[in-house]
Amino acid sequence: MVASPIEQVQIDPVVALQIAKCFNDERAQDEDRIGQLTGYIDRSSNVLEVTHSIPSPVETEDNFDEPERYALDYLKYIREKGCDHLQVGWYTSSLNSEIFTRSFLNNLVSFQMNLTESTVIVYDPLKTAQGHCSFRAFRISQDYIDMIKYDAENDYWPEPTLKELRDGKISTKDIFEEIPVALKTSFLANMLIYELEDRDSFNPRKSFLEPATSASLEKHLKLLDKVVDEVVNDSNRFNQFQKVTGKNQQQRQTWMAKRRQENEQRRANGQDELPLDEVNSVHKLPEAPSRIEPMLRSVQMKEYTDAVADFATKSLGKLFITDAFQKSS
Amino acid sequence: MSGRAKYWASESSSSSGSETESEEVVVKKVSTKKKKVVQAQIYTDDESEDEGRVVRNLKDRRFDELSEHIKKAQNMRKINDFSALLNTFKDYGTTLNKSAKVIEKEGLPRFYIKELVELDDYINAKWEDKDFKKKLSKQGSKGLTTLRQRLRKYFTEETKTADELAKYRENPDASEEEEEQASDASDGSDASDDSMSGTSDEDDDDLSDSGSDLSGSSDDSDSDSESDFDSDIGDDPDNEFARYTIEYFLKKDKTSSKADKKVRRKKEPREQKEKKEEEDDDWTAVDSGTVGKGDLKILLTGEVQVFPKDVEVTVKNVVQKLAEITAMRTPKEADRQNKILFYKKLREMASEANVGYGLEIKIRLSTISSCYDYNAKHKDYMSDEAFANALNETLELVQILLKNESIILDDDVQDDEESLTDQPNEDGKWHCRGSLVSTCTKLDTEYSKLLQNSDQHSEEYRLRLSNNHKIMQIFEEATEWAISQKKKQQICQMYLLKVKYIYYRHDSQKGAEGGQQKIEQFCKYIYTNDETQRIRTQAILYNIYNLALHDKWFQARDLMLMSHLQESITNADIGTQIIYNRTMVQLGLCAFRMGKMEDAHLALTDIQSGNRSRELLAQGFSMARERTQEQEKTERRRMQPYHTHINTELLECVYLVSAMFLEIPYMAEKEFDGRRRMISKQFHYQLRNSEKQAFVGPPDNMREHVLAAAKALKVGDFKSCIKFLINPKMNQKVWNLFAETDKVKDMLEKYAKTQSLRVYLFSFSQFYDNISIDWITENFEMSSSEVQSAVSKLMINEELKASWDEPSRSLVLHKTEPTRLQNLALQLASRLNQLTESNERLCESKQGSNFTAFYQSNRMRDWSRNNNRRF
């Protein structure tokens, strides 16, 4: 299916509120909540409109298949109501921009395999609470999707190997793509907002100049430290792998040379030649460490640094404003 | 002997049933039924005797049997074999029972009574001799006890015998006439019996007799009993028993034990005469040129015979004899002792015959080596007597060598160069092969074995240790000799041996004065003249040890560093490694005494970590490791003699204290540092263990004292720290072991004060803005200059962020604790540094090392710049 990719995700305010409600719940802190999104694709402008969300019930041990049935039932009902029932993705939340995990990737892959236009919407309740309403949409790049092969027998998509990644020239930044998100409110709602703004106008008494990012900055630094540590480990592991590979190559070469010599002699004696591919059984190639995980970590690291940079710029901006205030007063 | 005993025993048993009524026995008939061996024996007898039948009287037979047992018992007594003696005593009983009829008729035989008296005396004497009893083996002492009891019982039960005994005791010579008569009557049959006993096994008897005799006489403990036994014989030569023994002694007369026995034969005098001649031929007809094999014997009188009486002692004979003695196989202890006696006798005779120094030295060397000859399987060290023997022999050898400069004793002398004649070689010198140095070395090893195998706290150990002086004398003289011979290597070896005996002694000890200079002199000689690595290494180590012992820390340390032994010691043999360990430990102790805790800790860490100090210093075994018997034996052989031991408790204490003084301030300094490492694992372990305890009682042992001190130090409480370190208990256990106790204690006190000040400043400076110097001096009992120097040192090392405010005489502290965020950022920075490093390694493996070199140097510069700018 060759179609131009989605350029924008448009979220209905109802959906946004539904998602926010889902995660602003008290229990949301310690539960991993997700939900499904329905909507339709506007081919003319390549916009994905999300019009409904279905929160998945919390999975427990006794209702193992319930969420799925629930989602199906739900879809059936809204179809009967004449609403959009096309599953266009799912939503999840992230505290402190901790998103890019392996399960996140796998989920997204399976969605996108069903419907190429599927996306994931990530909501950050912490940021939202601080006043920055945060909805972000991601999808997996087409290159990555093209690279992985479907394993029909086991019904899953195996992780790409190191070699595949190298051949596909996929680098860290080529896995995920972020799609701009737009909130489109109805005119009626807009009017209400204006109305509300008028009533409760901007309150300068609020300490809006306070940087107030110290806590999350600390948190981010800690997380960053952790992920860097992991990357260091990955790097070491990789280093080890390279050493072993180098050694293995050498062994293989000496083995091959010996075998060739032997073969030459055999040829001279009129005997059958010995196969050369036995080398694989004699000197097995070392197993390469998983590549995708370090890549995901790198993505995550980038995410953290971006967040830190974001905090920093905002704080710096505020500092400049303060400076200006001081000078003027 | 045993064959014969068996013969008698079996004969009596087979004959007792059928022949008691007929008084005569036909031996010939009986003997044909006997085993082959016995047959053969009898056959030879027959041959020599020309007689078909021997007719003997029952009484004689019984009494012979009895006297046989008695003879055996006498031998047993000489070698103190109590269990065997007990058996023989039982045999008396059975024989007496059998001959009850005869005794009824004749009364108890005189010789038996005499034997009982002697036995009684002997047992009593042994019983009184406490020393002897202590030395006895378990079996032996058991035998002695039972034998004594049996004897007592026997005397009380058999009152008649006891009466006889008393009578005998009163007048040993009484009734000898009648006995004489009785014996005369029996003589006739006796004679035939004697010849019956045969000559073929007489030789063996003699040998074992002499063997036991010898071991008996060498044992001083029973010499008294033996001597009175001898005098008894002298007193009443005519009694029945004496006839059997004394005539042996008297008539054997250095040629043969048997030939003369036949003098007494009255029956068949003709044959007897023939026999005598025959025998005489056997024993005296010795070719004067060659010496027969059978000449070596020790007579029961204690005379040692090497040559037949009338043989001229010539060089050739002596050489041959020496070879013969050397070739002797000596399976038994007694035989080995004999060998030494033979050697001695040979030497005496040789020197009488003046066969020349060459031979004499050779004989002496053989003697010494046979002194060291003991059964390694049976026990792995020599007896005290043998050692004393060896010591004397070596001393004499050395003295001869010193006196006669014309003797050359060298390993390189060839066989044909040896001066085995009564003339020196052409160059006017006596050449002899052998090595005095190796003799001395052997003496040294045997000596240490002797020490290893005695209990360190016993009198025995002290006695053995008293040989030290004599050994030193030998070494002294041997060294003199080596110097006169101008053999550098040998001088080095001798010096090393001497150093080995003095290096561990402090000059202040009695008898060790001037040891330092001596060691200095010897070691210097060895450094310049030694050609083997081993001697030099050991000399260096001994030298360092001695220097460290005398608190010459810098000299000792420099020597250790200059020798580069620390790098190469793992390649050395185990003996040298042990010396190295000992030296390092001594160095550590020295550093501690000088107040250099870091050095002390460093030197002791290797030995103290892993709880193997005793094993590493060769002062004992570690229990944990499994080892085979063989390993254990070799390990035992490496043990250091007790008087050179280094007290392990002192070691541990010094180690713990030095670790405490390093660790506690460090812990205080880096309290919040995530990357804090441990300085001493062992100390940490102990500290953790004691902190785990819910209730800590007052300290009892050394370790608890140190830990309590550590805890006091942790809060900067120097007073209780010192109190825990220096108190009567610790003084007694540890500190008094140092030569200069007070100096060490002063040092400790001072050190404790400075360290607790450091700890205090590290731990509590955050609560102060400034501290007055006066307050510090007052609270830490230090002078203000001491405080200044201690605190300034901290500032210079950037351990404490503070500065002096001179006008107000106070210490101003700067607050420099980074915020949490800053800490995190620092952590992240270091982590990132790691990441780049590992990334570079990755690149390197791909691109080769040159790729990153330039980049790296740039980066490092940036990094350091960033670091400086951090705050």
TrEMBL record, chain A:
GO terms for molecular function: metallopeptidase activity; translation initiation factor activity. Keywords: Cytoplasm, Initiation factor, Protein biosynthesis. Residues 9-144 form the MPN domain. GO terms for cellular component: eukaryotic translation initiation factor 3 complex. The keyword Metal-binding does not apply. The lineage of its organism: Eukaryota, Metazoa, Chordata, Tunicata, Appendicularia. The keyword Transmembrane does not apply. It holds the Pfam family eIF3h_C. This is MPN domain-containing protein.
UniProtKB/TrEMBL annotation, chain B:
One of its GO terms (molecular function) is RNA binding. Keywords: Cytoplasm, Initiation factor, Protein biosynthesis. SUPFAM superfamilies: Winged helix' DNA-binding domain. Residues 173-182, 219-238 have a biased composition (Acidic residues). The keyword Isomerase does not apply. It is found in: Cytoplasm. Its main location: cytoplasm. The keyword Protein biosynthesis applies. Residues 642-818 form the PCI domain. SMART domains: PINT. InterPro entries: EIF3C (IPR027516), EIF3C_N_dom (IPR008905), EIF3CL_C (IPR058999), PCI_dom (IPR000717), WH_DNA-bd_sf (IPR036390). Residues 10-19, 183-199, 209-218 have a biased composition (Low complexity). Residues 162-172 have a biased composition (Basic and acidic residues). Pfam families: eIF-3c_N, EIF3CL_C, PCI. GO terms for biological process: formation of cytoplasmic translation initiation complex. Residues 1-24, 162-238, 259-284 are annotated as: Disordered. GO terms for cellular component: eukaryotic 43S preinitiation complex; eukaryotic 48S preinitiation complex; eukaryotic translation initiation factor 3 complex. Belongs to the eIF-3 subunit C family. HAMAP family: eIF3c. Component of the eukaryotic translation initiation factor 3 (eIF-3) complex, which is involved in protein synthesis of a specialized repertoire of mRNAs and, together with other initiation factors, stimulates binding of mRNA and methionyl-tRNAi to the 40S ribosome. The eIF-3 complex specifically targets and initiates translation of a subset of mRNAs involved in cell proliferation. Component of the eukaryotic translation initiation factor 3 (eIF-3) complex. This is Eukaryotic translation initiation factor 3 subunit C.
